[in-house]
Specification:
Largest sheet of chain A: none
Number of helices of chain A: 10
Order of helices and strands of chain A: HHHHHHHHHH
Strand content of chain A: under 5%
Mean pLDDT of chain A: 88
Largest interface: A-B, 53 and 54 residues
Structural class of chain A: mainly alpha
Helix content of chain A: over 70%
Low-confidence stretches of chain A: 1-17
Oligomer: homotetramer
Chain lengths: 218, 218, 218, 218
DNA sequence: GATGAATGAGGGTTCATTCAT
DNA sequence: TATGAATGAACCCTCATTCAT
């Protein structure tokens, strides 16, 4: 979304108005990525036509090949770049010292605002849908996203168990259980929203309540 | 590999063994469905070539069209026929009067043996992957599978809440939470099994334990 | 389905009612020809499917191949057999000694009742349409139909000229001019009948009047 | 024969010689139309393969689809564009004040030089052959060609009758009779030229003589 | 003979990729 | 660098023909 190198500096030229060549090129690259994300989300890898991507991006078909080696490279670029920015956020939660409920609520907020309410929800569906056909994508996400998030969660959950905030030790063993409802909401709404929309925030809050059910009122 | 040279053998039987024409035709239909399921599972709808389906089924390409109108009809037939048989089983659980834990264990067993350990796990991934592109499929599964199962679960969960087996009333409101971990295991293993296989039975048992966490050992 | 050899000869059997095997076979052959004519007329050679011919004839597709070597043979059989019966009639007109107008009227009547009002009009269109692709058909019709009719007409026209019934010697040189309006009516109505039907009998009568315009009322 | 090895030559020019892209594209379109006309003429609509059209035009198969939506659109474009340019000429004859014989001779000349001696003769056969299968084509030609020409001829013939140049009022009623021999020559030569070529100019002149047979030398 | 399920070559159409401008 | 016309391999589907029953 912003120029990457900006070597020149002075003159403005080209049709873009005030941008120099490098900035224009970067802007084109971003436009292609954005358009491709929309098209891949709507149709999956195979059903997406680069013609449509180009039209949506406002560039010529050949221009795509100036920025990406081929259709698959474009696809992988998108799929890889969308989720990784969130990983750091989630990993950082490991380092703050607040009650688990607070962390859980932050995770929910992050998930709703950065995934469910953005194109990232489609990325998740794309990974599920195309992963088996693109082993590299599955491998990348396991290595760069899933395993790192799971590791961080394990630390957090372990600490919560030790503090007595969570009674279920199994949760620390299977941090996947923490995210299962989040995955569910993404998939449910992608398929069934028109029939019966699912209020993600409510579902995820209910999920936290279940996990945190204290031995309170004895 | 096909036709032309077969000189048959025992004179009394065609290549089908002891089958008559109708049975052979039905067997071919099944072979096609089986092959198509395998190919669609591996590559999704668009990337699957009917040539490969035919080869895998051991029939000629044209034979597919004797049984199915076109590629999409074949796809829908597969996707529609695989899950519906399970719906009745799940609905029947509503009518038996046993503790919720017993029902939950039956659901886990059913899910593991009839979904995770069969091709049905691929069907679920196919629905997630192709549903947005085939609205009929999403609509069909909402109507014939999901909404019916959700309704049955709601009854069961409601009863469990009333009996005090479950404290979390939210569960009855969001029966999706009951199945979220099951969906998670399907997707996890389809993507990451080679990196870190998930023991579905253990995960689901842990999930039940969490839901049923009694105020017991205080 | 039925006994295999049936040497006898007397009894009637089979599904046909009172027909013996040979008669049934012949009836099937006729049914196929009739159905094929209808289908070829509607769609031309290439667009006609033997499936449709078989269905219309009430036989199985394979049965067609018991009577005809292949699709082209069936086509040629139809195209060849339809017009030849008329050739004799036209040739015989050479031998009767009546005024030309009487002969011309007979030709008109024959053409209207045996061509325009029957499937033969479609055969003519088929020959025009497919002739260039089936040189044998063009050759056959030139040899067996057109050249013979033209020869007979030439004799008749020559005699009419000598008798002073027709002043235009060119007619005897180009007997095609005699038939041009007949061909026109066939083609016109096959293409434009729904927009502006042409009264064939009226057109052909007018044509005769023109040819026979005497120097009468001076 | 195509692409791949061409290394261009004079550096300044592509393979098209001195043409710019638009001109080259138009030239390709024309080449496709020309090739398609030849192929359709030889085999009719159904029997023509776009592969052959492309090869004859010297383009790739896909190039056809840059210019025409599909096979039928290509066919209709050809069939529609070939005859309409002649309509205006024929209609204009209505406005010139010369003896009918002169007009008739112009029509003959036009027909021979612009139809019989060009590809248009094949178009006429194509319309006859495929018209019933493509109602739009029949409708188009009735509306844009035939009805307009017939109307113009009616005016001309009517005037000739009033002037006493033609005695046969029926001609004005059935202007089709004027063109019947022309149609005949097209069809005759398309089918039988190799057996017995018909001298179109001679036939058509004879036809005019017949129509104009004056009450002269009594 | 009669059947019709099965075959598989063939053709229309699409679309990722290239390359002359 | 950007363009988009051109390419041609690939794939769905049809249908003439075959052959086991």
């Amino acid at each position: 979304m912003s120029g990457k190198l900006r070597k020149s500096g002075t003159a403005s030229a080209g049709r873009g108005g005030g941008k120099d060549r490098a900035a224009q090129s970067a802007a084109r690259r971003e436009a292609i990525l954005k358009a491709a994300l929309a098209e891949f989300s709507a149709g999956g890898f195979a059903a997406t036509r680069l013609d449509d991507v180009a039209r949506r991006a406002g560039v010529a078909k050949g221009t795509i090949y100036l920025h990406f080696a081929d259709k698959e490279a474009l696809f992988q670029e998108i799929v890889r770049s969308m989720l990784t920015p969130l990983v750091g956020h989630l990993e950082n939660l490991r380092n703050i010292d607040v009650p688990f409920r607070a962390i859980a609520e932050q995770i929910v907020n992050l998930f709703v605002s950065e995934v469910l309410e953005t194109d990232r929800k489609n990325i998740i569906r794309l990974i599920v849908a195309e992963g088996p056909r693109f082993p590299k994508i599955a491998e990348f996400h396991y290595r760069e996203v899933v395993s790192r998030v799971m590791a961080a969660m394990q630390v957090i959950l372990q600490r919560a168990v030790e503090r007595g905030e969570i009674r279920h030790k199994a949760l620390a063993q299977f941090p996947q259980l923490l995210f299962a409802p989040a995955l569910m909401t993404v998939i449910w709404n992608s398929l069934f929203e028109q029939f019966s929309p699912l209020d993600a925030r409510a579902v995820l809050r209910a999920h936290i309540d279940i996990l945190l059910s204290e031995r309170t009122k004895p």
